[in-house]
Amino acid sequence: MIVDRHSAHRSKTVRAWLADHKDEIELRFLPSHSPEPNPDELVNSDLKRSLPHTQRARTQSELAVETRRFFHCRQRQPHVITGYFKAPHVRYILDERTQCASDQYDQPDGSRCQAHLTSQRGAS
């Protein structure tokens, strides 16, 4: 799973859970302070554009209702979801050949992911 470097993704609880499930899931971290390669930012932008502009939510519960409405609508629009991953700066997610381009997938311990190491060996 590709995630940003939010503290929640690096917490002790998450690291413990990942250790227990290392054969099932592995995290790849995006570079710090780089929202461009993060498709979540495209979803957030879409959500903000979709919220009503004439009558903004005045409470947290009103905002939650509007947010749920947005995501329920998007569930019925797979072409929009797929479109999030077609933008040039997030295309790497769909392109298996460039799974780990340059330093974008450095691990929290500073190591590189296996696919990047393999591609570097093949290029030498």
Automatic annotation (TrEMBL):
Record domain Tc1-like transposase DDE: where: 1-63
UniProt xrefs under InterPro entries: RNaseH_sf, Tc1-like_DDE_dom
Organism from which the protein derives: Streptomyces umbrinus
Domain of life of the organism encoding this protein: Bacteria
Pfam families: DDE_3
Protein name listed in UniProt: Tc1-like transposase DDE domain-containing protein
Region (Disordered): 29-61, 102-124
